[in-house]
Amino acid sequence: MSLNSYQSTLRVGIIQTTIENTAAWTTSVNMTRYEEERVISEIQQHVASLALETPRPHIILLPELSVPLGFLTRLRRISAQTNAIIIAGMDFQIAPGRPAANVLNRAAVIVPNGWGRRDRSTRTTVRYVGKTYPAWREEQFLSGLGYEFQRVPEVWVFDAGDFGRFAVAICYDFLDLERVAMYRLRIQNLFVLAYNPDLSSFEHAAEALARMIYCNIVVCNTGHFGGSTVLSPYHRPEKRVLYRHQGNGLSTSQAINLPIASLIEAQSGGDKGEFKSLPPGAEPKPELKQFEVNLGMGS
Questions:
Q1: CA-to-CA distance for 206 and 240, rounded, in angstroms?
Q2: d(Cα 131, Cα 139) in Å, to the nearest integer?
Q3: What's the pLDDT tens digit per position in 68-82?
């Protein structure tokens, strides 16, 4: 596609649900009935609010482990009705086709067939992005119930046409340096679904990786801890943070516009406009000389 073919912005809706982990997951890998009903009520309330936005979000994010497995069918209908891609962190799932002791942590990427073209779709397609690296508390919790975390060693990149490309990472995978290298200058948006109490570490990582990958970073964290944030690699610090939400126990939703066309222009080596310079190695590299030094160790 030519640079002139891309949309100027992508509108993203961020929903923070407030699942209480010590109440939701007690003696089972699936959330309790009470927490299911409560989180479904929160999701429906915030989706309805985002649907009234003008314009509506093109993509809606829900945090890691925030959606009960039985709500997926309803969420697909909501995706078709709102004509928005919904990227949802699903509850733990027993891995199909494997021993019953293996558990998956996945995000569902729900894509309506008329996305970006008409007001309402007739059907949806679902793709799953699995988590590769569990947090130690997550692994410890599953082990205590007699389960083993099933790693999914895959990296997906989604081509959204004139809205650019995006990738999805689930919580701890956000810090995987191999992914950083794979994403570098290949995507415009990285969506991170999290259930993370260490808010400052993810904020610092988002600040650094927005520059290293050179893309928009959206961290959709649980409202139980708070700490969702959106950054873009703008040069001016006051413009770089597009959204930040702090405060625990708060169920919220917000729609944000992310730059697309201007970011792709900067990524391609053209006019960087208001963005920072490209990361090292993105431009022609000087030939590095190699030196061998004998430190005088041994005979």
A1: 11
A2: 12
A3: 999 999 999 999 999
- pLDDT (tens digit per residue) in 103-125: 999 999 999 998 987 778 899 99
Residue type for 283, please?
Answer: E
Q: Give the length of the chain.
A: 299
Q: Measure CA of the first residue to CA of the last residue in the chain; give whole Å.
A: 61
Cβ-in-10-Å burial (0-12, 13-18, 19+) of 297 comes to exposed
Which among 143, 146, 142, 84 has a CA at the least distance from the CA of 111?
Answer: 84
Could you give the domains of the chain?
A: 3-267 (3.60.110.10)
Please state the pTM of the whole predicted model: 0.91
97 SS3 class? coil
* Other Cβ atoms closer than 10 A to 133: 19
The backbone torsions φ and ψ at residue 193, rounded to the nearest 5 degrees and listed phi first, read -100, 125
* 125 bridge partner residues: 111
Gap between the Cα atoms of 144 and 137, Å rounded: 10
